[in-house]
Amino acid sequence: MPHFLTLEDVRDVCHVYAQAQLTHDEPIPSFDTRYSEKLEAALASPQTYIDHKFIHFSMPRQAAVLFYEMIKQHPLLNGNKRIACVSLMVFLSLNDRWLKTNWKELYDIAVTVAASRSDNREGMLQLLTDFIKNNTVEK
After folding, report:
1. How far, in Å, are 35, 48, 53, 109, 123 from residue 119 at the CA level?
2. What is the domain count for the chain?
């Protein structure tokens, strides 16, 4: 059974790390300014199930859905791509995986997702799933 990110994980780990380490020229606003319903929806997306079976059955697909929704739902006033990158890494770590890539490559993928059209959701999710599948190792 996969370990999914909680709101507390995002607040206490992902947001804090991004605020401390990834602000660069654009600050990340307080967590309290988030759009609660959008963040909760993004966190719930990888956990969607029907008839007691996950719709997104593989861990790489669940990670891809989380990453995509954390960017496209735009749950924060600023820093969505940066927090999505950290959230992906934390999700993978919770599931005993590590992504073999550098931050620049991961952030470039986040920019690609942000610029993608919503009618290409499935194509982006497949691209992300393949990227995660091909670039993760067990911890």
Report:
1. 23, 20, 25, 18, 9
2. 1
